[in-house]
Amino acid sequence: MPSVIELELRNDVYRRPLATALDRLGLKQGWRAADVGAGGGDVTVALARLVGKEGRVYAVDSDPARRDQVASAAARASQAQVVALTQSGEELNLPEKLDLALCRFLLLHVHDPLVVLAKMRDAVRPGGWVVAQEPVTSAGRIAGAPFSMPDALDPDVGAVLPALVRRAGLELVDAWAEAPAWAGPGPVALYLEAMTEVDPGDDPVILPPLVTVVARRRLVEGN
Ligand SMILES: C[S@@+](CC[C@H](N)C(=O)[O-])C[C@H]1O[C@@H](n2cnc3c(N)ncnc32)[C@H](O)[C@@H]1O
Fold first, then answer.
1. How far is the CA of 12 from the centre of ligand 1 (A)?
2. By CB distance 3.0 to 4.6 Å, which of 2, 72, 76, 113 could disulfide with 6?
């Protein structure tokens, strides 16, 4: 399980794609949102800050250990409106319709991303937003050599994400890829070392690009 430091580093190095996506949405105070595959809660806490006291953020993860981890991250950040739940994305079932369902670094680990995206679509109100941020792992480079992630079921799922979102019946609103890049000491090297135990030294690193897809549930299904 990644430590809090690793998660903070991920939040640091991948903060720009998240910030761009949230800005693109115009996330508002009072919104209801879900962070699916919430892990340690970086994204959950960022969302909770934006939706404010009147909003609510469901942090959903299939690993029961994550519920306490997210709850304590939310408590440390004074974000009392976070509700942490143990649920799989394939069986997402929340007590109210959402304005936004978001996942980051989740779909690479699931057997059928389409099932999870369809559940996220059904969890939002008509016109509500679905955002997914997933890597193209092999497009990352250390000293020019491609990254690999043998533990992930589909480490390159980001490469097909826009098409998957359309196949899930969502309206594609925007999609792009962003990758942190660096050489020498700094957050990128620290992140890489924390995740892979490889110190890149002075070698140039391009971390796996994250493909972000911003999509909406159609107002009338079938259009
Ligand atoms: C790499 S972590 C990403 C955490 C977080 N989204 C982030 O970006 O920092 C993936 C998380 O997804 C969870 N997960 C894996 N498969 C899942 C599934 N089918 N449904 C819900 N959560 C799942 C794991 O337990 C883990 O916490």
1. 18
2. 2
Q: How does residue 9 score in pLDDT terms, banded at 50, 70 and 90? A: low
Determine which residue's CA is closest to atom 26 belonging to ligand 1. 39
Atom of ligand 1 nearest to the CA of 111: 19
57: containing domain: 4-135+153-180+208-216
Domain annotation covers residue 198: no
CATH (domain of 120): 3.40.50.150
Q: Does pTM surpass 0.90?
A: yes
As beta bridge partners, residue 183 has: 204
Adjacent-strand bridge partners of 173:
none
Helix axes 4-13, 187-196, angle to 10 degrees: 140
Give the closest residue to 132 by CA, choosing from 118, 119, 122, 117: 117
132 and 213 in contact (C-beta within 8 Å)?
A: yes
Whether residue 195 lies inside any domain: the answer is no
In a domain? residue 63: yes
